[in-house]
Specification:
Shape: globular
CATH topology: hpI Integrase, Chain A
Number of strands: 2
CATH superfamily: Intergrase catalytic core
Number of domains: 1
CATH class: Mainly Alpha
Structural class: mainly alpha
Strand order of the largest sheet: 1-2
Radius of gyration: 17 Å
Helix content: 40-55%
Low-confidence stretches: none
Distance between the termini: 38 Å
Strand content: 5-15%
Length: about 170
């Protein structure tokens, strides 16, 4: 998906996806970023639009790619500018670009703007196995919401328990 976005849709959409899957930020919050809020920083604090809670975003793992992209932007204050006027790309356009990239690499499962956040959640859980931490990061009110959100189902838990032995 990253390759396809970079090749077929462009650097803006690739960086948007990269930031989304590495931070778990909702697309509505990603689209609000202005260049001066991100440029040269390895950590930013945002106030999430939906929950109104503060959230630290660490940019260290994508710092170089992000700042190389920023260096190419001209005549805009937006991190993800629209090609039509001085505003950010719309959520609908993000959806279209993601689906275009998915089609190019034969990804047939539904790709949406929320896919980035769920991808972050799934892989964070797979790497650290800490549902309480992930619940906090995603600002969910209950661990079961987080498990459902990332696709950890009762069937998967049952299959894991069948194979569990000490």
């Amino acid at each position: 998906m990253k390759w396809s976005l970079k090749k077929w849709c462009g650097e803006r959409d690739y960086i948007l996806f990269l930031l989304g899957i590495n931070s778990g930020i909702r697309v509505s919050d990603l689209l609000k970023f202005k260049i001066h809020e991100i440029k040269g920083k390895k950590k930013v604090t945002i106030r999430e639009g939906k929950t109104k809670k503060p959230r630290d975003i660490y940019l260290t793992n994508i710092y170089d790619e992000l700042n190389n992209y920023i260096a190419t932007l001209e005549d805009t204050e937006w991190l993800f500018p629209s090609r039509k006027g001085d505003k950010a790309i719309s959520r609908i356009q993000v959806y279209r670009q993601f689906n275009k990239a998915a089609d190019m690499v034969d990804i047939t499962d539904g790709i949406g703007t929320h896919t980035m956040r769920k991808t972050f959640g799934y892989w964070h859980y797979r790497q650290f196995k800490d549902i309480a931490e992930l619940q906090t990061i995603l600002n969910h009110s209950h661990p079961q919401i987080t498990l459902d959100y990332i696709g950890i189902t009762d069937e998967q838990i049952e299959n894991n328990m069948k194979n569990f032995v000490l």
